[in-house]
Structure formats: C-alpha cells, structure tokens
Amino acid sequence: MTPTLVRTQLGADASAPADAGTRARDWAEIQERMLAPLHEAVYDRMEVGAATRMLSLGCGSGLAMLVAAARGAHVTGVDSDRERLALARARLLPDAGWDDAPAHSPHPARRRARLLEEGGPAPVGADGAPYNLITVFEPIGCVAGDSEGLVPALRATVPLAVRGAAVVLTGWGPPERCATAAVLQVAARLADTARPPRAEPGRWRPTLRDDLEDVAARAGLKPDGSGRVSCPFGYADVDSAVRGLLSTGLFDAAVRATDRSQVEKEIAEALHPYRREDGTVWMPNVFRYLVCVT
Description:
Blueprint: H1 20-31, H2 36-46, E1 53-57, H3 63-70, E2 74-79, H4 82-92, E3 113-117, E4 131-140, H5 150-157, E5 161-172, H6 180-191, H7 211-218, E6 222-230, E7 233-235, H8 238-246, H9 252-257, H10 260-270, E8 281-283, E9 286-293
Parallel strand pairs: 1-2, 1-4, 2-3, 4-5
Antiparallel strand pairs: 5-9, 6-9, 7-8
C-alpha cells in the first residue's frame, strides 16, 4: 500500500494562499492516503472483488476507487469538487500517469471506473446494472453539519442498488483516541474569535458516539455491523502536515474568521507535541465505519 509518511511537494510554498487546484493536489498527494488503512479494512470485510459493483459517494481524488478497481471491482465515483474529480480522472482513466496503483495488480483500473460530477444525471450503474456496495469514505462527525448533504444523497442513490446491498459510512473515532482532534480544536478557537461560539456549518465540534447511526437512521438504513481502524497521520515535516490538514476543509471556518497565515501558524504550533526528533510528525488516530443494509 502507499506509504503513510509523505514528503512536501518540491517547490511548494506552505505560506502561499492555496487556490482550488493547489488544495486538491495537496489532498491527493498528502492527505488522502492517510485513510488507506480504512479503505483496506472495509474492502477486506466486504470481500471486494470482481463481483463488486461499487458506488463511491464523495470519491475525492479517487484513491479508494483505485484500490477497489485493482481488486477487480467495477467502480463509479461521484463528487462535487471538480478539482479533486479531475485528479481522480487522471488516476483512474487511460493515460493516467499516476504510479500509486497497487503493484502488479491483475485488474487495471481503466475500463473499470466511471466518474461523475454531483448534481448531474443519476449515477446509474454501468450497463444499467445495480450496485451491490455503496461507500462514503469522507469521514463525518468532526464539523457541524457535515452530514446534512449526505442523508439526501443516500436516499437518492440507495434505489440504484440491489435489495440488501451494503452501505458503508465512515467517521472519526472518539476524540480521546484521535491525536488530530487536539489540532482541530485550533479551528474552533480561531473561528470563535470573530463570532460567538455556535454550531456554524463547517465549524469543528467533538465527534459524537452515534454520529454514523444517526445518519443511517435518517437515511432509512439498517445497521449491520461496525468496526474501528487505526489511521495514523504521518508527515515528513510540519509544512507537509499544515498543507495536508488545510486541504481537508476542516479549517475553512477559521480561515474565514481570521486569515490563512494566522491559521497556518496556529496549526504549526499545535503540531509541536507530535513532532519527532527527525522532524517528522506522527499523530495516532482511530476511525469508525458502520456497515448498513438497504
């Protein structure tokens, strides 16, 4: 699997304002792979292979889809972020030019993947075949309102799956098991400098025990098992860590309330307890997944 510890992109300036393309690239090159253990654990449990027809909601830049396709699955991804979707196309479609596919895979990704922009035509399965697995690998339960769009998306896509299909939701684990939670609290504190504390959409808040179960209930899904996976966030240096964390969008409210430079400085300071002697940054985290059936 792709190493968790990643290096800063050469020539990048961590203090420069990030446009949408730079931010998407930071997500794809630095942050997305931190969730690779979660992808693998879910795929092992669901026995993802050639018989799998998977719909990935919020597919991002496509790493989870790439791994599923390498196992032989037919995958369709949907996302609202055009920049991330463009990177997913580069990874999954012919002439991709990416080298992070699992080595010696007997199932090349090309011809096994489709990518669609959210808000377009319904993501009906290839050749009209229904899906038997729906995944949501963008973890919820860390910012206020992060599941509001997910419930209607699930209600709209579940009819495209076979009866009894599996739906896998993912979320952050308990704050006391996630070292990154202490760094994310910086986002809430900075956001509060410009306005009184409240549940503003996009503002960090502690993960709740039943976040995933609440989404399942509102979407009309029946829980059928769950699991926890260790997903440490490892970075080659502080600059890489700052850029990777900013690419998640979890600090957007803080940037709006102050400015990007201030947020970068505060994140770097909050990372100090997790720096190792060689300059790398290491934060142990636990993520949850909930398996539901339609």
